[in-house]
Design brief:
Blueprint lengths: L11 H34 L6 H8 L10 H14 L3 H10 L4 H27 L21 H14 L5 H4 L6
Helix pairs in contact: 3-4
């Protein structure tokens, strides 16, 4: 983000107005995306009219049935692009059919890591049959955004009692002391 383009907020009312305006714009954008997705789902269910799309796929050796949907034509077009050397289309085809090479590589690595950990555990048990690995469990992050205003004020008061010289943002690790 470009810091020079940020405009300072003059008052809490100004901040509220800008926040409201942003929230409304976000809602409009979300509704627009949802309606576009719904429209696209309906279009994908329609049959492909005879014409240029069918002709181009037929020339490439991919013939569609008479009742083929737009989704079938779309998938055929992606397959055709992959067959013609488009690597993004090839990756998409592999991903759609569940043969993503990166996913397979990750599964192999995970299996090898699990096997290595089991060998280490077996070796430790050979030395000490009562050995139990230490499990380090991190507590879930504390989310202040879900607190009510009253709870947040109570939290700030508690923080000030515990560390009177530090600001709340310092206590949360958001700024250096």
């Amino acid at each position: 983000m470009n810091e020079k383009n940020l405009k300072p907020v003059k008052s809490t009312d100004d901040a509220k107005a800008k926040g409201r305006k942003g929230g409304l714009a976000s809602g409009r954008s979300r509704r627009r995306r949802k309606s576009m997705a719904k429209a696209m789902q309906e279009i994908m269910k329609t049959t492909v009219p005879s014409g240029e799309i069918r002709d181009r796929l037929k020339e490439a050796g991919l013939e569609l049935d008479e009742d083929a949907t737009t989704a079938a034509a779309f998938a055929s077009s992606i397959l055709l692009a992959a067959m013609q050397g488009n690597m993004q289309a090839a990756r998409l085809v592999l991903e759609l059919v569940g043969e993503d090479p990166q996913l397979e590589h990750k599964k192999e690595n995970d299996a090898a890591l699990l096997e290595l950990k089991q060998k280490q555990l077996d070796a430790a048990h050979a030395i000490d049959p009562f050995y139990q690995p230490i499990q380090i469990v991190e507590p879930p992050p504390f989310n202040l955004t879900k607190l009510t205003d009253d709870e947040l004020e109570a939290f700030e008061r508690l923080c000030r009692k515990v560390l009177p010289d530090a600001s709340v943002s310092q206590m949360l690790g958001e700024e250096e002391p």
